[in-house]
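Issue 218. Parser rejects a valid record. Input:
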Amino acid sequence: MTALIAGLVLFLGIHSVRIVADDFRTARIAQWGIGPWKLLYTLVSFAGAGLIIWGYSMARAEPVVVWNPPRGMNHLAALLMVPSFVLVVAGNLPGTKLKAALGHPMVIGVKLWAFAHLLANGMLADVVLFGAFLAWAIVDFVSLRRRDRAEGKSYPGGSLARDALAVAIGLVAWVAFVFWLHGWLFGVRPFG
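Output the parser choked on:
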């Protein structure tokens, strides 16, 4: 569990710099330049992700039950992942109406991903992993929206064609992940 927690601290910590220490980030970029800052950000993110994967797999080997999800929660979680995938794609695809309306659909997608997985998993490692991501995504979304309002930032209106593309890509990714990749990567098949 120590490696999992260390990974979460590194990964979510570097992703929280703008939330808790935006002046520090701005000073580092001014001092080092954007390239070295992005390199540090990337290295810390990869180190955190590696520790999360390693720590989570170790924690799953010695499971501690916190709660037993009711029957059907895995199916509900899999269905909640449909909009999660679409929102993550919409957050990274320029010109969507979803981005214009929501501002930060990717962070909303992460919230939905974490919440869905908390519904379907009751082991301590799951609660720590998905709970940490859910808490981070909630705080990050509030911070991003507050920053948008302070800067008077709005997102340009998108097109329905771009939304349709986001939905199509999200659905294809969801099908691939739910029916093949999730089982291969994590040993769990959401639909049995």
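Fixed in the parser; the record now loads. Residues 1-62 form one domain.
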